[in-house]
Every structure is written in structure tokens, then in C-alpha cells.
Design goal:
The complex is a heterodimer of chains A (401) and B (136).
Chain A (H helix, E strand, L loop, with lengths): L10 H17 L4 H18 L8 H20 L21 H12 L6 H11 L5 H7 L4 H15 L10 H13 L2 E2 L2 E2 H15 L3 H14 L25 H15 L10 H14 L8 H12 L5 H4 L1 H15 L1 H9 L2 H4 L3 H13 L3 H14 L3 H17 L2
Antiparallel strand pairs in A: 1-2
Helix pairs in contact in A: 1-2, 1-3, 1-4, 2-3, 4-9, 5-7, 5-8, 6-7, 8-9, 8-10, 9-10, 10-11, 10-12, 11-12, 12-13, 13-15, 15-16, 15-18, 16-18, 18-19, 19-20
Chain B lengths: L2 E9 L16 H21 L2 E6 L6 E3 L8 E3 L9 E9 L3 H12 L14 E5 L8
Antiparallel strand pairs in B: 1-5, 1-6, 2-5, 3-4
Classes of the chains: A mainly alpha (401), B alpha+beta (136).
Chain lengths: 401, 136
């Protein structure tokens, strides 16, 4: 190790420190906006300097450098001091707070309801995920300056807001889910990042829905290795090579889900993430597509749509997913009737047509399937999905000949 | 070096070399060959150091204009919504010359279609205005 001129930097460990240091600064009374900016600069410097000069105490290093930046910024700004400057040379000792508390506190800050979802996501990834602005910009395919501005504006919105009240956990869960579904692009695997943050969240709160979300992510992520073939083409669940699924992730997902469901009572029914995780677990449990326990899946979908008063309008995705289960349990015509209920709400979306194509094909109605897949392809908003749908349309059209 | 957009159109443009049905009506193996060729073009451009961007557009379009003071924006499908020119997507390339841009566009146009025959698709080549000061 001593022979190497540049040491390998443990970026994961560095990123994990960011929320802890930030929480420490904010709890000490520093302004969230200024502290987060100062810490981002300290992070960039750490990425430059640490490979060759690793610090003895990484957390103290970040705190000291960020504090120095804050002091410099206050001096040059010549603005009214928000608080007395500390005269001690040493950074204050870390507050006796759990790592989970820091995460939860910052998540509530970043997922403030006054922020738009895109801003909540960006701020969470920076302040809690410890990603650089550039990494976040990469992940969302926007220029770095655009992402920097989005984060800056988000923090300006938060200025003056009280950040010490607990927020709405449901918003935090939704933001983490958005991070997960953004997938992976560039150098950052957002799916893994979401799982990491969701894990931290389960340390900070007993709420079963937090575990439900983590379980859902794990059970979904486990199938990722089978999702694309060697040419990068989408392979849907019913066609996937299940030998490629990550059995460790499935096992962990099932464990986490069970610990959440163990907490349910008559008054406290499982929330949406637990229900979706239960459905994912049933899929992951089937050794082959044919062995899928569709009646159990349908029962869980019944629970899912029961979570809202008007599921057709409030949760059309759940109604559509249930229609697939109905098709497998009660026959394709029944499933198609379920999709008819959604025509006015999502009839112009590609997924509605794609599900109908799948149900027609289930019933052996290949011309109708081909037509539905073609309609779906025309409405796709993602290249890989469009290509997949064109292939299905061509395949079912040719098969009938 | 100048940048060019090589634009594909869903419809519009010069009279097609020969009519061909929408891709969802091709034989599956012809669909695969076409998509493989698209991947190959991107890889080739990347290898050559000419690749800048490649995008596809959804076929839905809305024309919008300012509605006036205090008025909502005005939207329309536009004239002849079934036959009017509609961009499907593009390659953006950074190349030595206009000639090279045409060469790449012609290659894209040779993409295989039904029965593996080249599509001879008309590709729309446009120069992107440069950020740098012009040399002449």
C-alpha cells in the first residue's frame, strides 16, 4: 500500500460521512443552505486531496474544512452574523446522535413539501447521498450547471423555514422511490443509492412502510441481472432467466418484508409499499413463470386498490397491475374488462395498450395483440420500451400467419 | 469542427425511394436487423470520435403560440396533421466537413428494412450553429 503513489479512495465511506457532517453543522446552528454549499466544496476537495493524503479522522477533516469555508463566506459576504463565531480551533465533538437520526433529520429537510419532486430528489442525493452535483447531473442527463441551479433554488426555497420539525415520512418514501426508479446511468447507480438510503432510513424509524419500501426495492433489484439480454434488449418478467436473479437480495427482501408485516394489526393494515413488496416477493418466489401464484397476487392487488377511495383515478397503475392478475386468474376477457375501466384515465399511455396486448396474447388472440402492441409502441416515451413493443407487435403479427 | 444534425422523419420530406410499411408490420428478423444496424451506427460514430448525440422523439406534437396578454397559450395540431412533416429523431455528429456529414447520412440511409433490403430513407442534414467565432 505504501508503494502505491495514489491510494484507492473509499468513495462509499466518504459519501456516507456527508449527511453526518451536515447534520452536525446544522444542529450546531449553521444555516442549512450555507452549510450544504460549504460541505459540497469540502467534499470536492476531499475527492482531490484524500487519494494522496488520507486524513487520520475523515469526519473531523470534512467538518473543519466546511467550517472554514463557512467562516470565509461570512467574512466576505459582510452580512449580518446569524450566530456568534466559535473561537475554538477544534471542531466541536460529534453530537451524541445516532447515524439514523441524522439521516432522518436531513431527509425531512430535503423532502420538504414546499419543494417540487425533482428538487427533493436532487437535494436528497446531494445532502444525504453525498453525491456531487456533477454525478447527479449525469444521472439525470442534464448539464451540471442546470442541476447546480436546481439545487441552489431548492435551498433558497428552504431558507427561513423551520427545519427542526419532523416531516411527512410518506413524502420521504416517495422521493426515495423516485431515486430508485431513476435507475442507473453514468457513473452513479441510483438504484443502489436508493437502497442504501432506504436501509439507513429503516435504522431511523420503526415505521413498517420504510421497511416495505426497502423490501420492494430489494425484491425488484434482485431481478435486474435478467432484465436486459446481451444486446441490451428488455426482457419482461415472464421471459426472464430466473437463474440470473440475485437470491441473496431476494432473501433479504423477504426478511425485511416479513419484519414489516409482523407489525400489522386490524387497525394498522399494510401500506402500499408493503403490499407492492408482497406482490414482488410472490413473483420472486416462483421458480418459473408458470409456477407464479397468481391467486395470491390478485388478493394482494385487491388490498392495494382498497388503499384509495377512487383507485381508477387515484392509482390507475395499481388497477392496471390488478387487471393482469385478473387475466391470469379469471381469464383474459375478465382482465381486459378491468382495463376498460381505465380507458378514460390512461387510455393514451403506452402501458395501457401494452397490458391489453399481453392479455390478448394470453388468450391466443394474436391479431388483437399485434394491434395493441403497435398502439403501445406509438405511445412509448422510452427507446428501449418502444423497441420492445415494436418487436412484440411484429412477432404476434407474424405468428398468426 | 462543424456539427450536423442528421434528422429522420416519421413523414414529410422528398418522395420516398420506395414505400415501406411501419416497422411493427415487418418480419421479426427484419426488425432485429434494423435495430442492430442502429446500434452499429452509434458504435461506429463513437469509435470514429464523431458521435455527439442521438435522440428519438415521440410522434405526439403540439403547436403552441403566445395567446396574448392575460390569455392562455393557443395550441393546435397544425395543418394536415396526418401528412405534415414530423421529425422522428436525430444523430448529432462532429465532423471535418459537410461532405463527411453527407457520407454518414447516406450510410444511415442504407439501414436494412423489410426482407433486409436497404430503406434508402431520406435523411435531413442540417448544420448546427457553432458557439465559437467563425473562421472566415
Amino acid at each position: 500500500m505504501i508503494d502505491e503513489p495514489v491510494q484507492r479512495l473509499d468513495e462509499g465511506a466518504l459519501r456516507a460521512l456527508v449527511p453526518r457532517v451536515l447534520a452536525g453543522l446544522v444542529r450546531r446552528g449553521e444555516d442549512f443552505d450555507a452549510a450544504e454549499d460549504a460541505l459540497q466544496e469540502a467534499l470536492l476537495e476531499a475527492l482531490r486531496v484524500w487519494p494522496e493524503h488520507p486524513p487520520r479522522d475523515p469526519r473531523a477533516w470534512l467538518t473543519t474544512v466546511a467550517t472554514r469555508r463557512l467562516v470565509d463566506a461570512r467574512r466576505s459576504e459582510a452580512a449580518r452574523q446569524r450566530r456568534e463565531e466559535t473561537s475554538s480551533a477544534e471542531p466541536p465533538p460529534p453530537a451524541a446522535t445516532e447515524e439514523g437520526d441524522d439521516t432522518l433529520f436531513l431527509l425531512f429537510c430535503c423532502c420538504h413539501p414546499d419543494l417540487a419532486p425533482a428538487s427533493q430528489v436532487a437535494l436528497t442525493l446531494r445532502a444525504v447521498g453525498g453525491l456531487t452535483t456533477r454525478e447527479i447531473a449525469d444521472a439525470f442527463y442534464v448539464p451540471e450547471a442546470t442541476m447546480a441551479q436546481r439545487i441552489s433554488r431548492a435551498k433558497r426555497t428552504l431558507r427561513g423555514r423551520r427545519l427542526d420539525q419532523p416531516g411527512d415520512l410518506a413524502v420521504v418514501l416517495r422521493v426515495l422511490y423516485l431515486v430508485y426508479t431513476a435507475g442507473h446511468a453514468g457513473r452513479v447507480d441510483l438504484a443502489r443509492e436508493a437502497i442504501r438510503l432506504a436501509r439507513q432510513l429503516t435504522l431511523a424509524t420503526e415505521e413498517p412502510e420504510a421497511r416495505g419500501l426497502l423490501a420492494l426495492m430489494l425484491l425488484n433489484h434482485a431481478r435486474l441481472p435478467a432484465r436486459l439480454d446481451s444486446e441490451g434488449r428488455i426482457v419482461t418478467l415472464d421471459q426472464q432467466d430466473r437463474g440470473r436473479w440475485d437470491t441473496r437480495e431476494i432473501a433479504e427482501g423477504v426478511r425485511v418484508l416479513q419484519s414489516a408485516l409482523a407489525m400489522r394489526t386490524e387497525e394498522r393494515r399494510p401500506g402500499r409499499y408493503q403490499v407492492e413488496a408482497a406482490i414482488a416477493a410472490l413473483h420472486d418466489d416462483a421458480a418459473s413463470a408458470e409456477e407464479t401464484d397468481w391467486p395470491q397476487i390478485l388478493a394482494w392487488y385487491d388490498d392495494l386498490v382498497a388503499l384509495t377511495d377512487d383507485p381508477v383515478r387515484q392509482d390507475p397503475a395499481a388497477v392496471l397491475g390488478r387487471a393482469v392478475a385478473v387475466g391470469h386468474v379469471l381469464g383474459a376477457p375478465a382482465g381486459l374488462r378491468e382495463t376498460d375501466r381505465l380507458r378514460d384515465v390512461i387510455g393514451e399511455r403506452h402501458r395501457w395498450h401494452a397490458v391489453r396486448g399481453h392479455l390478448h396474447e394470453l388468450d391466443g388472440e394474436l391479431p388483437a395483440a399485434a394491434s395493441a402492441y403497435a398502439e403501445a409502441a406509438r405511445r412509448a416515451t422510452n427507446v428501449a420500451e418502444r423497441d420492445y413493443l415494436v418487436r412484440q407487435a411484429a412477432r404476434t403479427r407474424a405468428a398468426r400467419a | 469542427m462543424p456539427k450536423y444534425l442528421l434528422l429522420k422523419h416519421y413523414r414529410g420530406g422528398p418522395e420516398p425511394h420506395h414505400p415501406f410499411p411501419p416497422m411493427d408490420q415487418w418480419a421479426p428478423e427484419d426488425v432485429e436487423a434494423h435495430m442492430a444496424f442502429q446500434r452499429h451506427v452509434s458504435e461506429l460514430l463513437e469509435e470514429n470520435g464523431e458521435y455527439v448525440d442521438a435522440r428519438a422523439l415521440t410522434p405526439a406534437r403540439t403547436w403552441v403560440r403566445y395567446g396574448g396578454p392575460e390569455a392562455a397559450p393557443v395550441t393546435t395540431d397544425g395543418p394536415h396533421p396526418e401528412t405534415s412533416d414530423l421529425i422522428a429523431g436525430w444523430y448529432m455528429i462532429d465532423v471535418e466537413s459537410h461532405e463527411r456529414a453527407l457520407e454518414v447520412a447516406a450510410y444511415v440511409s442504407s439501414e436494412p428494412g423489410p426482407a433486409g433490403e436497404p430503406l434508402y430513407e431520406w435523411i435531413d442534414v442540417r448544420e448546427v450553429m457553432s458557439a465559437a467565432p467563425s473562421e472566415d
